[in-house]
Structure formats: C-alpha cells, structure tokens
Amino acid sequence: MTVSTVKTDHASAAVPPVARPSEPAHIIRDDAEAVAVAHALAAEFLKESSKRDRERIWPVAELDAFSQSGLWSINVPKAFGGPEVSYVTLAKVIEIISAADSSIGQIAQNHLGVIAAIRTVSDAEQQKLLFAEALKGTRFGNAFSEFGSKRAADFETRFTDAGDHVVVNGRKFYSSGALLAHLVPIVALDDEGRAWYAIADRGAPGLTVIDDWSSFGQRTTLSGTVIIDNVKVPKTHLVPGYKGYDRPTADGAIFQIIQVAVDTGIAQAAIDETVHFVRTRSRAWIDSGVDNAWDDPYTIQAVGDLTLRLHAAQALLEKAGLAIDRAVAEPTAETVAHAQIVTAEAKILSTEIAIAATNKLFELAGTRSTLAEHNLDRHWRNARTHTLHDPVRWKYSILGKYFLNGENPPLHAWS
Question: In what helix (H) or strand (E) does residue 380 lie, and over which residues does it extend?
Fold first, then answer.
C-alpha cells in the first residue's frame, strides 16, 4: 500500500488561516438541485482524487467549490433563508461526493452536524447569526475529539466566563476540516461539566492548527492537532450543544447518517473501479473457459452480490433519512429512537459493504490491480480508516437491546 509518503515533515508548524470567501455562496433552491450540483462537483473531484491521495495534496480549490456551491448550507432552515432539504437528500449528496473523493465528503460532516445542532439548541438570535455565516459560505471545521481521554466523550478542554466572552483552553485531535475552516467549533466543558460548542475564529490568537494527520487512509480530510491556548470566543458564538442530548433529539442520528453516506460512497467507488478494471484490463482465468474476464461466472456472481449489498445499505440509508426528517419535525422519544435504530442498521451494512467491496476489488480485478500506478488501495485504506469511527459491534448491541428489551439507544453523537 502507498502508506509511506504522508507529508508531515513540518507538522510542528502552525498552519495559517485561510481567507473568508470574497463572494457569497450560492443558495440551493431545492432537493433536486442539491443532487444535481453534487453530481457536477463529483465529476470534477474525481479527476485528481488519486493524485491528491498519493501525494497528500490538500483539496483547496475543490473545497472552495464545494462550500461555494451551496451544499454546505442545505440543512439551514427555510425560516432563515436556507434550502432545508430532506436528510434523505443530504445523505445522498454526501454519498455522491464521497464516491468521487471520500476525504472531501468527510470534511463536510461536522459542519453539517453543527448546523443541525444550532437548529436544535440555539435561540433565534444565535440561529440568525450563525445560519447567516453558513449561507455566506463560511466553513465550520471542528475541534471535538481528544487524543488521550479514556472515552470519546471524556473532554478535558474547558472554558471560563470572562464577561462578554469565554476563554477556552485544551488540546484536540481528529479535527477533520479544521485546517481550511473559517470557524472552528470547539467542544469545551463549563464549570458544571456540560459540553458546549465554542465557535472560534480560525485566526483567533491562541488557536493553533497543526498538519500532523498521518493515517494511511482519509489522508486529505484536513485533520490534525488543534491547540487551544486562552482562546477568546464571544458568547454570541457559544452554542449549548449539551441540550441536544439531555432530551430526545435527532442530533446524534444526523452526525451518524453522514458517516454512513461516506461509507456507501466509498463502496460505490470500489464497485465502479472493479467493473472498470475487469472490463478493460483483467484477464480471464486459465480454467474459466471464457475469453473475457467479464464473462467469468464467479466474477459475475461476485459483482452481483456486492451490488446487491450496496443497494441494501443505500435503501437503509434512505430509510434512515426519512426517519431523521420525522424526528426533526416531531422530536419524541419514539421518533428519535427509531431514527437512531434505522441509522445504526444502515451503519452496519455500510461498514460491511465498504470493507467487502474495497477488498474484493483486488480479487476480482487481479494482480495487476495492485500496481502502484493505479493506487486502488486508497479505497480500502479509506474504508478501513473511516469505518473505525463508530464500532459496528456496538451497533449490534444497540439493535439487540432495542428489539429484545425495548431499550432506546443512548443519546450522544455516536448513536
């Protein structure tokens, strides 16, 4: 695998912030336009996706095109001037983009999740302020997870009250999108241990983003270490994220469904690569009795099986989107639990097909598909890396407890 060329030679150096967009972003009109725009962008993103992975080239122009297209504000409510597309459509958009370049698809995840959280927990004045930023084309990154804590939800980053602003201190990792974000939501605890999103300006004094992401997969998600040293955040940008989980809301399922869409996108890319390689480069096996690799009965069966399993994952992804739409409109214990459960089911199938399709690619395409010039291992590396975010073994536990004992899933961003 091409795992030895990750460019982190200057990882100790802070990455300077990027400028805000000079022109306002487009605003998507409806669901159909969102899908059409996603397809158009994906066609462009695909062209250099292998090179970006191989050389770890930041998708700067691609990310600008993505956020300026209007797809980063598609879940802003209509009441605030946004398109408010369905979560079925939002998931399809992420899947389409991720099939072209799954790193770019993942970068948008936390931005869209934070937009959803603002809708759930912020007052009208804060919503107006922050939704306006998203509609302009401002990108929210993230500084959520921490490297050394016992559990993902254990945070040491804290803030103190300083009048009209708060002062935040801590250290973060797994900060997808933070390098080229305009605003960085930081998960920080108050003196009662409650988690807030302290949304800092990317260029705020004391906020340092370091390009030290060295994973073998999802190599251009613009992640890395975020150091927060007495960073001032105005209270207008202090979002009470904890309120999204102290009662039933769809916030957790929304974060999760975007993860599912990234994985189905990776699976689609792997199946597309398999078909293309078998049709154009692979040789028929010596004992097959056929002249063309695409006539091999075992290959035919395998491609049919992979496609069926992908379609099953996509069907559950759509069902999860519908359940989330209902939970957003009518947030009750029952509607939220249903959205969580269907999304967990989709997460299981999407993980399984992403791993299976990216692995089967080499078996069906043959030895020459492993040559470095093709860089097809990026799909497996991306699938293996991204699917580690939320362990499938615990999704089975959630399902079993729900269907056997009537126990609703826990309320957090991983469920």
Answer: helix 377-386
